[in-house]
Amino acid sequence: MSVQGRKLRYAVLIGAVVLAGVGIWLVSKSSAPPSTEKIQGAIGQRKVERDTKVAEADVAVTPGTAPVAVQEFLKSKEFKKVAGDQAFQGLLSNESFQSLLKNESFQGLLRNESFQGLLKNESFHSLLKNESFQGLMKNESFQGLLKNDSFQGLLKNESFQGLLKNQSFQGLLKNESFQGLLRNESFQGLLKNESFQGLLKNESFQGLMKNESFQGLLNNQSFQGLLKNESFQGLLKNESFQGLLKNESFQSLMGNQSFQGLLGNQSFQGLLSNQSFQGLMGNQSFQGLMGNQSFQGLMGNQSFQGLLNNQSFQGLLGVQNGLSYMRAEMQTGLNKD
Amino acid sequence: MRDRSGRKLPLIRKKSSALLRFAAFVILGWANAQAAHPKLYFQETEHVRVVYYDPAHEYLVPYLIRCFENALKFDNKLFHFTPSQKVTILLEDFGDYGHGGAGTVPMNFISVGLEPLNYVFETLPNNERLSEIMNHEMIHIVMGDNASNSDRRARKVFFGKIDPTADDPISMFYSSMASPRHYSPRWYHEGIAAFMETWLSGGLGRALGGYDEMVFRAKVRDKSYIYSYLGLESEGTAIDFQVGANSYLYGTRFMTFLADRYGLDKLLQWVTRTDSSRRYFASQFERVYGKPLKEIWDQWITAENEWQNANLARIRQYPVTHPRHLPFESLGSISRTYYDPSSKTIYAAVHYIGHMAHLAALHTDTGDIEHLKDVGGAGVYYVTSVAFDPTHHRIFYSSDNKNWRDLNVYDLDTHSGRRLLKDTRTGDLVYNSADQSLWGMRHHDGLSSLVRLEAPYSTVKPVFTFPYGADFFDLDISPDGKDLTGAISNISGEQKLVRFQIDNLLKGDSSFEVLYDFVYNSPENFVYSPDGRYLYGNSYQTGVSNIFRYDLETKKMEVLSNAETGLFRPLPLPDGTLIALEYTAKGFVPAFVPVVPLNDVSAINYFGQDLFDKTPELKTWKLPQPSTINQKVITSTGRYSPLRAARPISIYPIVQGYKNTAAVGLRLDWMDGLRLGGGDVTASYSPSTVQPLSERFHFGFTGHLWNWKVTSYYNNADFYDLFGPTKISRKGEALKFENTRNLLYDTPRSLDLNWSVAGYAGLEALPDYQNIATPISRFVTAKVGLKYSNFDKSLGAIEDEKGTMWQLVSDFSYAGGNGFPQVYATFDRGILLPIHNSSIWFRGSAGKAFGDPTNPFANFFFGGFGNNWVDHGTISRYRDYYSFPGVKIDQIGATSFAKLLGEWDLPPVRFRRVGSTVLYVNWARLALFSSGMATNLGRRNARQGFGNLGAQIDFRTVFFTYFNSTFSTGYALARDNLGKVSGEYLVSLKIL
After folding, report:
1. Residue B505's CB: how many other CB atoms inside 10 A?
2. Are the beta carbons of B520 and A50 separated by less than 8 Å?
3. CA-CA distance, B151 to B147, in Å (whole number)?
4. CA–CA separation, B71 vs B76, rounded Å?
5. Contacts of A319 in chain B (CB under 8 A)
6. Interface of B with A in 660-679 (CB under 8 A)
């Protein structure tokens, strides 16, 4: 290469470096966050010692890890009893389950004492071997639900375990709002009902169940009572009525808060429990009427609903666990900051 | 076997075996109940044992241990401190904000609340919190546990440090012998701890805090009273809106002054307990500084005035912002504010003297403060988190802010409120009008999560969880509902004003735009202007909290104020004007602030920085990172059992009274480090020959584990029987099991179920009625009670001032083959009067006993104030259902009764300068009461009526700066339905 050519190359290189430098400076000037010095005018800055730089590596904590608690569980009599159980050993040798065991969230779940109790249940072992269910177990929200004592009770119910193997229902279970509903003890009672489980396998009904407003209705104890009503369940099993349930307009009516308010109304529920009315509801013509938007409009009309709606419902008081005692005890003799 | 009256008692032995069977049943129940309690785990080193109850908290334990060892290493070097016993740390998550507590008597114990701290108004530093808390709490341990030779000798004699107990008040004397520095005022303990925490963490702490500097600048500017060290304890920490925080503020400032004026060495000589140091903190102070504490405290006040006047002069170098106050007095502590232009009203939560914390409508045109609704469980400074929905005219707010926060809504049209969700653990609420969603920050398991609630607000959905050490606060949402802004703080305490796009957040993209890097200053309370162009907030960048404005179009930050004290929580109005809160010596006052960008604002100097510049040694105090502590320091891990961890903690001589004689003996205390299990044994002997030999030995036993308790005695003796007419001592023996269960624990509401069963033998007088001889000396009793209480008090109160309490108690005695059931109920209702800290109470009670009316077991007994000359029970004993001042103790017997007492508690008078550090008077309070009672309601011939009128005045005194005692005196006049009048004087000193 000639000297001239080399010089030209140097010139181009230097020019490029200068241009790049200017470019970087301009970009950094326009996109970097303004510094404290960029405040307008002669604004003083307080002078205070601040030598507090901490690198994250200096703290190095990993939320979700609890080796001591897990180790204590593994040493516990409860675990040893389960570990000696053949079904449990079979479960442990299951490949899918082994992959589940590597899941961090699932490890967190394993540390949960109530869940540990559930692990002793044989039917639950067979459920755990089901691959679809294992997929569901990896879902964090569902793991949260599994820590709920009442839900664990429900999981021990064989019929419900059958339902859990249903893939559509598993999809529904991943829905967070529905998980909230599942924490409701009354609703759990309802879920143990086989007829209702049949209904739950219905995809349209599952779609409705994902509707948060409808879930709010399902939280309503009276409505749950209605759902336990065999005649009403019979109605729910009625194919035509199920067809009605699949009707989008009707589903939208069911998702209508005002209409749900009506459904939560005891008087209206009384009417729904009435076999004749249920017969009517099973009647295709009436269902057609129910699918009619004008009629739904009437049903969604607040004044019409107000005619029936005159009851309010309140939750019951919670029960406090032993932590409250511990907490009160901790206050003794302390300089509280 | 026969009783004292010679009657045969055929059932005694059968009953004894039944009692044994019952005892076995209770013990089994007790053992079974332990399984129902939280499992506790521990990890320990040579010096510390960390206990935790939730595996979800375990990830912090190794780091916490390193923080502890790191702090201890420094404390050992500077204070020559080696813990006298292993320190127990409880890592807990009882509250939504981080906190700590420490105690050294009788055990070294630290409580660490693991959540992020509350940085409101920069009252607390926001660097890594576990390290910060540990540095602070360990100073408490050093101050209380460090011992001289004489302290160590006392601890050797008593086999440990003594837990002062009102049961045996002589323990206070022994305790002060073994741990003299523990008995120092709170400003001393908190002052030195906050002073040290600042330098140990490299400058982030209250000795270099903007809020601390402002408090005293405001006092000087407003010519407000700066308390003496006595007045601070007696009044300053009670009637000031900052209450207990004043101990930190004054203490830190005084320590800084001492180091600044007289040097670090002298400060360390004062606070370090060495063999040559004096026991009492004030005596050691005088020895080190050569002058009494009072004189140097006055020097500090003079110096503080000079310092603050110099800072005010610096501020006044440039035109000062003069906020135009709205027509309100100081509102004390105040939450975020919202403005409703249609009614010209500011909505906020406020908390000021003489009032409950409440949601308030501040009518800016009239100056009226409309009390909308009490806020239960208010926080200091910020009161509560508030979000305003202008469309539906409602306010969302959190309650139970000191524990796990609940979410509530208040409808401004219907004036009704309700709780939406319990224990959401969510604050920093902000409402998005675009989609009616509510956003907030949740603290749980030590992590901060941005959460969202959609209407109807029944579920809290996490949107993004920040890594440990990072926090996000002071949220706001742009008027178009698209952007969410707030302050992000990292683990080093550096802070930035940032903006998230809500659509992105909902899609799982948590990236954010840094609007402005405030470095170590806090970008506080930044809120959108109604047109969405600006963000208004406040920051201590100049040393004073001034109002700043960020232009989202030009991306420039402007300063809008040159405040003398501090301006906070700006509230831009639709007409372009601006309201902010000015800090004054009495609290925050809303005021109009001009919206004019300023070019010149002087920085002020910080007192702590002045000290730092003069004292290079402070730089060397900065601790190395906890990661420098070897992880292998952990020696043991496992399950924690309170029963197994319980150890004897002390043995000491006691004096007791038995009937009218004195007894001497020993007391042994034992407990575990968390006080979950423990108890005491007392054994004493009456040398007097007045009593037969069989009554000269006395024995007492108490044991508890979790919420179970067992007590037993033989010829019960009691210290307070040495004085006055009330007698606790009893001949005979007893064994009692008790259990208390919280059915509801939602502070301040609680519902407790309490039951007990007890067996007695050889008694002469009834256990609860000293003057009533028992016809049968062996009997068993069972009792079950349900008690609900929901009390609250306003700032400056000395006790609960309003609320409700009721209890329903059923008592059953089985004696001589007969059962004697009793049932009674009480109902108390208090109403706070418009006069500050004054309330009226109505206390009703009624009961019925069943059985032979001539049998004492089938009767209730009433009479007397009930206070002994020297006492350790409640002060206002006249409130109890069995009390009836004006007649003698147990004078009125009845098989049934109905009673109503009305009481007016006058405002307390507080004393600023009465006494010395050894003994001073805190407050005095007068209560007037009158009650009426009808007895034997179902027995016309035996029916009686009684009435009384009385007054009691109480003086709260404090001795050794630590022990509260109350001197009470009073008089009551009683009259029965036959016209018989009697009177009773009360003179009583309540200890502890």
Report:
1. 19
2. yes
3. 5
4. 9
5. 743-744
6. 674-676
3-state secondary structure of B171: helix
Q: How many helices (H) and strands (E) does chain A have?
A: 30, 2
Rounded percentage of chain A residues whose pLDDT exceeds 90? 0
Q: Cβ of B596 under 8 Å from any chain A Cβ? A: no
Closest among B530, B589, B773, B612 to B198, alpha carbons compared: B612
Tens-place pLDDT, residues A217-275? 666 655 666 665 555 656 665 555 655 555 555 655 665 555 655 555 555 555 554 45
Q: pLDDT tens-digit profile of A21-65? A: 676 555 444 444 444 444 444 888 899 988 888 888 888 888 878
As a whole number of angstroms, the distance between CA B12 and CA B331 comes to: 66
Provide the chain B residues 498-557 that lie in CB contact (below 8 A) with chain A: 514-521, 540-543, 548, 555-557
Instruction: For chain A, positions 47-66, list CB contacts with chain B under 8 A.
Output: 47-66
Side-chain-side CA neighbours of B663 within 13 Å: the count stands at 30
Query: Is A117 touching B (CB cutoff 8 A)?
Result: no
Q: Which residues of A touch B201 (CB under 8 A)?
A: 52
Q: Which two tokens stand for residue B219?
A: 């006092």
Show the tokens assigned to B315: 């501020």
Judge whether B458 and B421 are in contact, CB under 8 Å: yes
User: Which residues are within 8 A (CB) of B679 and not within 5 positions of it... i.e. 6 or more apart?
Assistant: B669, B670, B671, B701, B702, B703, B704
Range list of H helices, B415-519: 502-506
Query: Using omega within 30 degrees of 0 as the cis cutoff, is the peptide bond preceding B748 cis?
Result: yes
Residue B73, C-beta contacts closer than 8 angstroms, at least 6 positions apart: B629
Whether the CB-CB separation of B553 and B513 falls below 8 Å is answered with no
Q: How far is CA B857 from the centre of its chain?
A: 40
Query: How many H helices and E strands in chain B?
Result: 17, 52
Q: Do B202 and A36 touch (CB under 8 A)?
A: no
- Nearest Cα neighbor of B374 from B350, B393, B392 is B350
Residue by residue, DSSP assigns B453-466 as E-TTT---EEEEEP
Min Cα distance B704 → chain A (Å) is 12
One-letter amino acid for residue A152 of the chain: Q
Neighbour tally for B807: CB within 10 Å: 18
Q: Indicate the pTM of the whole model.
A: 0.80
* Whole-angstrom distance, CA of residue B862 vs CA of residue B850: 17
Q: Which among B416, B347, B417 has a CA at the least distance from the CA of B590?
A: B347
Among B37, B605, B637, the residue with its CB nearest the CB of A322 is B37
Cβ(A175)–Cβ(A142) below 8 Å: no
Kindly provide the ipTM of the predicted complex, given to two decimals.
0.86
Tokens read off for B699: 């024995």
Contact between residue A208 and residue A245 where contact means Cβ atoms under 8 Å apart: yes
What is the rounded distance in angstroms from the CA atom of residue B249 to the CA atom of residue B795? 18
| Any B CB within 8 A of A74 CB | no
Whether chain B has a CB inside 8 Å of the CB on A3: the answer is no
Of B555, B608, B626, the CB nearest to A58: B626
Other Cβ atoms within 10 Å of A137 Cβ, number: 20
B803-845 tens-digit pLDDT: 999 999 999 999 988 999 999 999 999 999 999 899 999 999 9
| Amino acid at position A176, single letter | E
Partner-chain contact B137 A337, CB within 8 Å: yes
Distances from the Cα of B827 to the Cα of B140, B802, B803, B898, angstroms: 42, 13, 11, 12
Q: With beta carbons less than 8 A apart as the criterion, state whether A214 and A260 touch.
A: yes
CA A3 to chain B, closest CA, distance in angstroms equals 50
- What is the distance between the alpha carbons of residues B207 and A173, in angstroms, rounded to a whole number? 53
Quote the distance between the C-alpha of residue A235 and its chain's center. Answer: 29
Helix (H/G/I), strand (E/B), else coil: B437: strand
> Which uninterrupted H or E stretch holds B109?
strand B109-113
